[in-house]
Design goal:
This protein is α/β, with parallel strands linked by helices. It has 10 helices and 9 strands. The chain is globular, with a radius of gyration of 19 Å. Residues 242-260 have low confidence and may be disordered. The structure holds adenosine-5'-triphosphate.
Length: 260
């Protein structure tokens, strides 16, 4: 698969490189001979039906699951944010963020990260008193403070209301612009994928069914990506007015081309 941003110019090695990557659970092949690169600073959205293997892929990249002996490059500086914030309820917010950080600067680093996510006023709060959005902001701060080269987001905003979700999109994009980690976000939300990502990838039965780079500026995507939205919904098997599932997938970037 090509990851060239500027054809003809030598590219730095990708931060994530998977080649012929497979994962079985018993007799079931969950990830099937995947090739996937993620470039430094690239924001990739991973879509797919329930059971298509998204979380299995993310967990492997997070080091929480093993790869079945294939060529894999994954940076060691990585952090994960899950759908639920997974904070320790007996530790104050700043201590949740500082957890595991070495040395005397831990508190200052945690405070700086919490300031970046807009939670300076909640440093000493108990996790159970946080709103859902605040809890996810804390989880983002906890990831950020580790200065990850790769951020893995597993449906991080799925449990939030629509307005909070939009605010979180803005926050994540601001953090990403400021720190430029590579990001892989798993989402079921086509509009979220389009709003955030440089590239969208659809997984189906453990294989990449569809992928496309989004070149439009993020601020101007609403109008310009309507067609991509239709094709993504098509790849996900959601009926559209303009054609069948198969036609719509064929209308996306051909996979053979993507594999070049
Ligand atoms: N530890 C495990 N043991 C056995 N089977 C597993 C295990 N983890 C995942 N699976 C199976 O692998 C398949 C893919 O699961 P995975 O969680 O990766 O899908 P997903 O695309 O993330 O789904 P969802 O959108 O519902 O979270 C499922 O059929 C699941 O039952």
């Amino acid at each position: 698969m090509s990851v060239a941003y500027f054809p003809g110019i030598a590219q730095p090695a990708p931060v994530v490189r998977l080649r012929g990557f497979s994962r079985r659970f018993g007799p079931n092949l969950i990830l099937d001979d995947l090739d996937l690169d993620i470039a430094a600073g690239e924001f990739v959205a991973l879509l797919g039906h329930s059971g298509s293997g998204k979380t299995t892929l993310l967990r492997t990249l997070a080091g929480l699951d093993r790869a079945d002996g294939q060529a894999v490059t994954i940076p060691s500086a990585r952090a994960v944010v899950f759908q639920d914030a997974r904070l320790l309820p007996w530790k104050r917010v700043w201590k949740n963020v500082a957890l595991g950080l070495p040395g005397r600067t831990a508190r200052a680093r945690a405070e700086a990260a919490l300031a970046e996510v807009g939670l300076s006023h909640r440093l000493d709060a108990w996790p159970l008193t946080l709103s859902g959005g605040e809890a996810q902001r804390t989880a983002l701060a906890r990831a950020l403070v580790r200065e990850p080269q790769l951020m893995l987001l597993d449906e991080p905003f799925a449990a939030l209301d629509a307005l909070t979700r939009l605010r979180m999109h803005e926050l994540v994009l601001n953090l990403w612009r400021a720190h430029r980690p590579s990001v892989l976000i798993v989402t079921h939300d086509v509009d979220e994928a389009i709003a955030l990502a440089d590239r969208v990838v659809v997984l189906d039965k453990g294989r990449i069914l569809f992928e496309e780079r989004i070149v439009a500026e993020r601020g101007s995507r609403t109008a310009s990506v309507r067609d991509l939205r239709r094709r993504l919904l098509g790849a996900l098997g959601v009926a559209t007015q303009s054609g069948s599932y198969a036609d719509t997938v064929a209308g996306g970037q051909p996979l053979a081309e993507a594999a070049e």
